[in-house]
Amino acid sequence: MKLETQHLSLGYDDKIIVEDLNLTLEMGKITTIIGSNGCGKSTILRSIARLLKPKMGTVLLDGKAIHTLPSKIVAQQLAILPQTPTAPEGITVEALVRFGRYPHQKFLQQPNVEDNTAIEQALEQTKMTEFRTRSLETLSGGQRQRAWIAMSLAQDTPILLLDEPTTYLDMKHQLEVLHLLEELNTKTGKTVVMVLHDLNQAARYSHQLIAVQNGQIMAQNTPELVLTNQVMRDVFGIEAHLILDPSNGKPHVIPFALAVKK
Amino acid sequence: MLIARPKKPLARATIIGLLLLITVICSIVSIGIGAIRIAPLEVITALFDSSGSLNARIIQELRLPRILVALICGALFAVSGAVLQGVVRNPLASPDLVGVGAGAGVFAVITLILLPSAPSWFLPVGAFIGAWLGFALVLLLAQKNNEIAPVRVALIGIAVGAALGAVQQLILVRAPDDIGRALTFLAGTVYGADWSRVERLLPWLALLPVAWFLAYKLDVLAFSDDVASGLGMRLMLARVVCMSVAVALAAAAVTGVGVLGFVGLLAPHAARLLVGSSHVFLIPTSGLLGAILVVCADALGRGLIPPIEVPAGILTTLIGAPYFLFLMRQQGRIS
Amino acid sequence: MTKSQVSRTRWTWLIFPLLLGVLLFAFLLSISVGAASIPLLEVWHLVFNPDNSTNSLIVQTLRLPRAVIALMVGSSLAISAALLQGVTRNPLAGPGILGVNAGAALGILVGIVFFPGLPSELSILMAFLGGVGAAALTFGVTAAVGITPVRLALAGIAVGAMLAALTNGIQILFEERARAAIFSLAGSLAGRTWDHVLSIVPWFMIGVLLALLSSQLLNLVSLGEDVARGLGVNVNLARFGLAGIAVLLASAATSVAGPIGFLGLMSPHLARGLVGVDNRLVIPMSALIGSSILLLADVGARVVDMPLETPVGILITAIGAPFFVYLARRIR
């Protein structure tokens, strides 16, 4: 399994946001795309998930152009959880998770043992089994997000993409979601690629960071090597102290001033 | 909404003068149109001809009251729309879109059925009560969290209008035949308007200058509530007075021609393009444009393929609905 | 399966026969009520065993086709609305609200007035074109500023008003020729015959079958564009297909009954209240509810002003418009 982009140009209408992007994602790892608002990080994730058609260039999944592959085949390899997804009012957790099996089902086929096992597993992994019959809007924000992640897990794909999975969640639920992703990665070796806003969370939970500015990759490496004073200045426009988090040895960012523009 | 360009009062007064002239010309030409065509010059002589010739009789007894009703109702609807748009700060407001027209219609029917012997002046009064009820119902239903979103008002107004319209039809099918005939005016057409209808409407014309006197209040109401209060306006009172005038104008118009779709929406917007948003100019300009619109729609409906008559309401809807869509897009761009 | 799920399923299997019973009752009642009242038991007998009596003649030639039309029109409009609500993810959507019915009526009228040589079988095609055109116009206008439920509904109503005015105008100007289109313009079920039934049966069957087959696809689409696409759905194709089925059903219904607003809109909401959000259940349930409502309203239309007929569309509007207000208040 391999996921990479070649000479990718992305944009909406006539506006180009990303140009000539070459990126290889490491399999079996957690990779987080970081960058300031409007830098194109969500755009990149969406195009990797074939939700956005590239203007030029290709996204290659195992060497094949992802936008030319049948959408269902892609959905068996790669699951995407978009930013703040919404479901029809009244849908239950289990019904939602069941939709994750769609890529594996044929037209009018009844769910088989494999489908049911995948659903049970997804519910279990996300600790949503007890909420399975609850309707989505009766859940807390964190539970709701876990339900959506469960749907993506039921898809049973080696790759999981998430666009800002912690937005609108309070601190506890943010950590809950990130813990879950970490656990999935270590236990099942699932490749996780996500977009996060919080640099410290990104550093804490990722094997690799990709810093994006103006649609260009400024750095791609381990958190220790990406989070430097230079990157803070160039990508985020801030001056920051970089210390090591005593609890896990990961870099921690403490901003103290706006960077002076040269 | 379109930002009003500052214009010199003189220029704006000239525009109003020109519109007045156009109104007169349109009326005269329109009088001549129909199964029997009469040239504009002959129309003028026939207007003052007391000899009882055929042309004079056609014009004085049939065409003139019809044109007058068209003029009056067009102006009433348009000014009602201008006042409503100002007071609810909603560019999509119009008497036929906020339940006023439909409420007036239902109560006009009820008035005629319950009080068949009531004097004719009472009909607009009944319509006025119904119009206020329809309007209040829409405002009440459209309000959510103490907030009235413009688009929601229009949507709920239309739905309430549809429901009231259905109720009106249900009452009508059960009504005695002669009352059914007395209510033909509700169909959105000027067809069959006679002098008695003109007389019924005349007293309500007095509301036009009243609306004009409210112009300054409407200008202040256009600001946010805090600003308006800060300028010393008694908000609630000003609003109720302005709304009542708008509702009364529309109710009277409904008893003249029924609901003419979109006139109350179209005319004020066109007027704003011409003279800006100061109500002193906006109100008379709207009134004139409304009158011109209805007279022309009526003339077109009569003149297209005589003797077939296309109701004026159909034609105003054909112009007004696309304009409404256009306005919605404008509104969407801003909010 | 957990306990509550089992009970939900049982409840669902109870609710379907129940609604079928209501539908059957409404169907028989609709055959029984009219200028000549025929007792329900006799109706039951005469439907299956026609004889030479006057009542049998009334049932077989007048009441039965009318009831069958009500059945088909009611379920078509309801399914159409369920599809449109799913595709647009908009609770205010429906063939009446989005202008589709008005477009279909205009299409038929244009076909009859301006292309008199057109074989009558093609009038559904004209209706379909009109319906598609109206839907495209509504979406086009709204999409330019960003689609919200309220805006889409408002634009649809304005488009509908415009097309209805156009239809009225054409009808008045070409009165003679427009007479042939009268059944497609009135919003009523009076005087419909077996010919009308036959004219829409094939379209009705195709539409209902397609709708049932694509109900799971509708579920996926109603999860939103990104999620559906992430699961491997070709969203644009699915939307076009589903909307196409919706317009087809609404056009078929309009071609024999004229534009009837608000009926379609109501039914899926009531259905969801009974069986939840799964469209595999909502679609058949909407059909049951929609046809029951129309059958009963048609009975009402005959009773309101006996022995005269009131167009059933008015009655439906009187019930449906307040329901619409209720919905419009609920959404953001």
Radius of gyration of chain A: 19 Å
- Quaternary structure type: heterotrimer
Tell me the major beta sheet of chain B.
Answer: none
Query: In the CATH classification, which architecture of chain A applies?
Result: 3-Layer(aba) Sandwich
**Contiguous uncertain segments of 5+ residues of chain B:** none
Q: β content of chain A, as a range? A: 25-35%
Helical/strand content category of chain B: mainly alpha
> Portion of residues in helices of chain A?
25-40%
Can you list the strand order of the major beta sheet of chain A?
Answer: 6-7-8-3-9-10
Number of domains of chain B: 1
Total separate domains of chain A = 1
The N- to C-terminal Cα distance of chain A equals: 43 Å
Mean pLDDT of chain B: 83
Q: What would you say about this model in short?
A:
Chain A is α/β, with parallel strands linked by helices.
Can you offer a commentary on this structure?
The complex is a heterotrimer of chains A (262), B (335) and C (332). Chain A has 262 residues and is an alpha/beta fold. Helices cover 33% and strands 29% of the residues of chain A. Chain A has one domain (3-258): Rossmann fold (3-Layer(aba) Sandwich), CATH 3.40.50.300. In chain A, strands 6-7-8-3-9-10 form a six-stranded mixed sheet, with helices on both faces. Chain A has a four-stranded antiparallel sheet with strand order 2-1-4-5, covered by helices on one side. In chain A, α3 (93-99) packs parallel to α5 (141-154), α4 packs antiparallel against α5 and α5 (141-154) packs parallel to α6. The longest helix of chain A is centred in the last third of the chain and has 18 residues, at 171-188. Chain A is globular, with a radius of gyration of 19 Å. The N and C termini of chain A lie far apart (43 Å). The relative contact order of chain A is 0.16. The mean pLDDT of chain A is 89. Chain B has one domain: ABC transporter involved in vitamin B12 uptake, BtuC (Orthogonal Bundle). The radius of gyration of chain B is 20 Å and the shape is globular. Chain B has helices at 9-32, 40-47, 54-87, 100-114, 122-142, 150-174, 177-182, 195-201, 207-213, 215-221, 225-230, 235-257, 263-275, 279-303, 312-334. The mean pLDDT of chain B is 83. With 335 residues, chain B is mostly helical. In chain B, 73% of the residues lie in helices and 0% in strands. In chain B, 52% of the residues are buried. The radius of gyration of chain C is 20 Å and the shape is globular. The two termini of chain C are 35 Å apart. Chain C is an all-alpha fold and 332 residues long. Chain C contains 14 helices and no strands. Chain C has one domain (74-330): ABC transporter involved in vitamin B12 uptake, BtuC (Orthogonal Bundle), CATH 1.10.3470.10. Mean pLDDT of chain C is 88; it is low at 1-7. In chain C, α3 packs across α12 (263-275) and α8 (194-213) packs antiparallel against α11.
